[in-house]
Structures are given as structure tokens and as C-alpha cells.
Amino acid sequence: MKRLILAALTASALTSPVLAQRTAPPMPAIVDPQVTQLRDAALKVDTAWDIIEGLTTEVGQRLAGTEAEARARTWAVAKLTTLGFKNVRVEPYRMPVWERGAETAEIIAPFPQKLTLAALGNSGATPATGLTGEVVVFANMAAFQAAPDNAIKGRIVYIGNAMPRTQDGSGYGAYGTARFVGPALASQRGAAAIIIRSIGTDHHRFPHTGTTDFPAGVKPIPAAALSVPDAEQLERIAARGAPIRMKLVLTPRQVGMRESGNVIAEVPGSDPSAGIVLVGGHLDSWDLGTGAIDDASGIAITAAAAKRIMDAGQPRRTIRVVWFGAEEVGGMGGAAYARAHAGERHATASESDFGADRVWRFEVNLPPAAKPVADRLQTALAPLGITRGSGLGGDGTDIGPTLKLGTAAIDLNQSGWDYFDTHHTPDDVIDRIDPAALRQNVAAWTAMLAVVANAPEAIDAVKPR
Predict the structure, then answer these.
(1) Which residue numbers delimit the Peptidase M28 domain (predicted)?
(2) Is the pTM of this model over 0.70?
């Protein structure tokens, strides 16, 4: 009887999708023990926190092209030099500069009340005394695009959206069109002004700013984002059916061409022919908060990781840390860097510009000969709770122009569950950063740099995304 039971159980195991023996996964790639040591040691230091605290306290907000961003560059050069990096310098360039002015909004009728909003970057201005007009409310971009022009001309357009909370931040691309292109389309269709529901996932009474583009030939009109609660309030008022009249005061201005720049520092490698490992984030920020998560955290994480490698000894490849300028207003720093360094050989490029929450996934775009590099990354990052994604790496405004030249890419993806609660708001401050999550980021970047900067394989050009 026991034999029959054992035979039955064995047969069941061979046929059951739950119990059947599956093909064993491949053995993990072996990594140098020093990678593990560097990674684990990074979990116990607060270099990144110190950088964020210093920048946000001693400089604060850093709108591109302004005196504040210039002070940030001076601060950055001093900080990177003190940390021990080599070849620290600023590479300047010129850019058009937009500055915020007064910004108020109030419903005149049918239910008079004040609203909270922030002008979008590149917004046009109302008269100094304000603009009063009828509001036409659209639930989303699709409804706005489907409406006839006579429903829009001369009115203040409102576009709603309900950006979902996602781990990978994909809702930003899907719903951000209301900000990215909505104002230009409204201008082309004769609108007097446009307000949108903030592109965010919070319900705080903080508006989310961000840049918008008015192509050549399209007149910039007043454009602003309402805080999410105020946007929902406007929608409730509209649902009652009475016409809505609003007064807007937005007085931003274009101040002409000014200087911005990229701050560059290096960990020189032993083999110049092996290519440069480019890492960094952006130094500028919006002017509502102190830019702690966007992107003081990104420049701090990457610099702290590069310092860990530097302090451990000379890597094979040069690690170049770039704190890009003017990312928020159109990626001017990334474009300027690619122009200035197009003749140099970059092995890989990576950036951190998604806050300071934990890294949960990595993705690569490497040439076939460098596949072992990705395999070693998988081994090195797994203990930090980081999985290997199936997508193609190569994300980031600042490194985008360099990636287009054929540079290989490695992405370390942070969780975006909470990122868009504070993104581009007055709440972007150091209090929103979890020190433990920040250290996990530094450990992940340290492991990545330890693997990539010392990889014996050639990392040649790839087909751009």
C-alpha cells in the first residue's frame, strides 16, 4: 500500500503544474567580492544626505538661468572638490530664462472664492490688473480636443485629468499632455488662457508647476496649474450647470538670454580607451520648493556612489559625474553636454532623476558582447531587493542626447508610488526623503559602478532607443 501511495504521489508531482519539477534557473553570475563589500558598506554612510542637506539649506531653490542656479554651481564646485573628485569644472552655456511673477485666481461667479494655482514655465502673462473671463470645463484632453473651436475661443480653458499612482511613473507620460501640449493647442484655438488640474497624485492644496512649450509662431497665453483640491472644486461647481467666471492674475516674464552650466567632476580611470561611465542628475530645480527630491537627491546619490568607488582605488574606466543645469526648463544642460563631448567615447550613461525612494528594478541597453555585465549586475543588485526588468534601458532627459549618439545605458528605476505627490510643488523639501531609502539608492549605484567601471568586457556602441 505504501508503495502505491508513493507511486501515486510521484506521478502527481510529475503532472501537477504546482508540484512538478521545473527547469532550474541559471546559476547567478559571480561578482568580485569587493563589489559586495562596497555595496554593503554604502548602506551605513550618509554622504548623499549631507549633499542634499547642504544644497537645499545653503542654496535652496535653483531656477535655471537665475542667480540662485549660479550660486548652486559655485556651491557644487566647492563640494565636489572637497569630496576629492578630480577635474572639477563648470561648462557654461547660454539659455533663455523665464521668471515667475504674481499668480492668483478667483471665481467671480456663481460661487465667489479664491483658488490656489501656479504658473507653468513659459506661461504668457495677463495684464497686470488681471484677466476676467468665462471658464469652459473639459474633463480631459480628449474632451478638449473633440470640442469645436467656437466653444474655446476667447474663454479660459480648464482641462482635467486624474493621474494614477503607479510604481513606474507611467501615468506622468499618459496624463502630462495636458501640461506639455495643452497650452499651445489652446492658444492655437483662440483661448484667452488655460488652467489645468495639476499633474500629480496628491490631494494637498499645493499646485504642481512644470514647463510647457509654445512652438515658434504660437502666442504664449497665460497658463497655470490648479492644486488638485481646487481643480476638483472647480469641477463640482461646473457640474451645477451655471456659467463660471474667473479672474486670473499671472505676471511671469521672459528676461532674455542668461548663463547656465553643467558642473563636471571625475574619478579618473586606468584605461582611457575603455570609455567613460557617465552618471549624474540635474542641479537646477523649480522655484516653489527647495528641489530636494527633484533633483538634489539624484545628484547626491550618484556622487556619493562615485566617491565610494574612488575611495576604494582607481577603477578601470573613468567615472564622470555631471550635475546638469537647466533640465527642468527643457534639458538644455543635457544637449550642451552632448555637443561638447560628442567626440569622446562613452561606455555607458545613467542618471538619477526620480526622487529618493527605493530602487526596485534595473534595465539595460548593452551590446551583446557586454551581456556578462548585466548578468553580474543582477547578482550584485538582488540582495537590495532589485529585480532585472525586461525593458530596454535608456531613460532620462539629461543623458538622452548622449544616448542618441549610441552610448549604452543602464537604468536604476526607483519606485514612483509617492513621487508625484510632491513633484514640482512647494512640498519638494528634504523632509520628504527617507534616509534608509536614500542609502539603499547609494548602495545600488555603488554596486552598479563597481561592476561597470571595472568590467573587463568592451562596452561598445548600441542602437539608440
Answers:
(1) 262-445
(2) yes
CATH number at residue 152: 3.50.30.30
DSSP string, 327-346: TTTT-HHHHHHHHHTTTS-E
Q: Is residue 233 part of a domain?
A: yes
Mapping DSSP to helix (H, G, I), strand (E, B) and coil, where does residue 199 land? coil
Residue range(s) defining the domain that contains residue 178 = 101-251
Strands 346-351 and 276-282: parallel
Q: What angle do CA 269, 272, 275 make, to 5 degrees?
A: 90
pLDDT of residue 465: 72
Pairing between β-strand 359-365 and β-strand 346-351 as defined by DSSP bridges: unpaired
CA atoms of 284 and 329, how far apart (whole Å)? 9
Residues of the chain with pLDDT under 50: 1-20
pLDDT tens per residue, range 102-155: 999 999 999 999 999 999 999 999 999 999 999 999 999 999 999 999 999 999
Same structural domain, 87 and 119: no
Cell numbers linked to 348: 555607458
CB 391 within 8 A of CB 412: no
Q: How many CB atoms are located within 10 Å of the residue 162 CB?
A: 13
CA pair distance 326, 214, nearest whole angstrom: 18
pLDDT value of residue 4: 37
Q: Answer whether residue 15 is part of any domain.
A: no
